[in-house]
Structures are given as structure tokens and as C-alpha cells.
């Protein structure tokens, strides 16, 4: 990947895991833990009027950490990882997942200038993100 931050997701072929998010009960503690454990770098980024912490290893972006909302934590949602699979068309994949017995947890939406994403529940109850690079964005191959 030659330490090019656009290569993590852009280099992943359709159908392969390209990104991973950590929804954390304590973003700061999670960032410190993974920096100490694996040497991952964490950098604050802005998107869609909010923010997330981008994760990098040896200069390559591969995922992010975001703070779970107080509402989600009060509802009992624990910290958790969510992998994303690269797809050519998020909307088409969501429709196919629904036809195959899956459920839609998060409607497709654009992450400002980067990707179009959605979250599904598969036919056996596992969560999975689907991720489409936006044309002209940093992850457009």
C-alpha cells in the first residue's frame, strides 16, 4: 500500500472487507488502548457535521473509532467492531440483502466526500456494513 492513505479502501476489491469501525463507549480510552497494543495512529476527522477518529497503521488508513451516543449506551449497546465490505452499488446490495432475508439497520447515506455506506443484519442476525467509494473521493480507485 506504500503508506498511501487512499489505498486501504481503494485497493480492496469488491466483495472484500475494506474498512472497520469501532463504536466505543470511551473513544479516548479505546484510542490509547489500540495505540499501545498495536501502534495504531488515531487522527480526528470531520464528516457530515460531526467527527470520527481515523485509524492508521504504518500510515495506511483502515478504519475508525467513534463515540457511542449516551442514548445508545443507556439502551445497553456495548462497544463493538463493525466490518465493511466494499461494494459497487450500496443501494443494489441493500435491496438484494433484503430479498435474501436480511434487514436494514442503517439506511444508505453518503459520508461526506468519501463513501456511501449502509448497515445490514444478515439472515443469521450478524451486523455488516457495506461501503461504496464515492466518485472522485479519496477512496475512488
UniProtKB/TrEMBL annotation:
It comes from the Bacteria. InterPro entries: Anthracycline_SecMetBiosynth, Glyas_Bleomycin-R_OHBP_Dase, Glyoxalase_6, VOC_core. Residues 16-133 form the VOC domain. This is VOC domain-containing protein.
